[in-house]
Design brief:
Length: about 180
């Protein structure tokens, strides 16, 4: 019987040893799985970070391209408008001239209004001058007068209208400044 007990004890020890080995093997596998999971998580984090950076770069590129297109459009538009402003000046002068033919004058006024409306629709604005304070970024002083009823550097007369698109001046106003 002692032999049977020894065999049982040995069997129990073997089983316990096998369980221990199995447990150690499972722990090793778990540790390995955890390491692999951490590695995969790190790779995912790196890929996500790269994705976010590329996306941010792309968004910045889109915005920069949009600004460049708008600037180019405004440059081209201002060049075209600058070339046709003398025509607008002549139409304005034609409207001021006295004529006996009222229908002819109405026709010129309609063409002038259409011209002005088209420029306005494209974002072209007149620069305000008479009654405003002289601003060298918007106005070009061609003369000055002494007038005690006016403020210092107040614009009293406009020889030629100025125009701008947004903040870009296409043509400065030619003005007479007081004092």
């Amino acid at each position: 019987m002692a032999e049977k007990e020894n065999n049982l004890k040995e069997k129990d020890l073997k089983e316990k040893e096998e369980i221990k080995q199995e447990k150690n093997q499972n722990e090793k596998e778990n540790t390995q799985a955890k390491n692999e999971l951490q590695q995969k998580q790190q790779e995912l984090d790196d890929i996500t970070d790269r994705y976010k950076r590329v996306l941010a770069e792309f968004e910045n590129h889109k915005k920069r391209s949009q600004r460049e297109r708008e600037n180019l459009y405004n440059m081209v538009l201002s060049d075209v408008v600058e070339a046709i402003l003398p025509i607008l000046d002549n139409l304005e002068n034609a409207v001021k001239v006295e004529t006996k033919d009222e229908e002819y004058k109405k026709g010129i006024e309609l063409v002038l209004k259409q011209f002005q409306d088209t420029l306005k629709a494209k974002g072209v604005e007149e620069i305000k001058a008479v009654g405003e304070i002289f601003d060298p970024e918007l106005h070009e002083a061609v003369s000055s007068v002494q007038d005690d009823t006016k403020q210092e550097k107040e614009i009293v007369q406009e020889y030629r209208k100025g125009y701008k698109i947004g903040t870009k001046v296409i043509r400065h106003s030619m003005v007479v400044v007081a004092n």
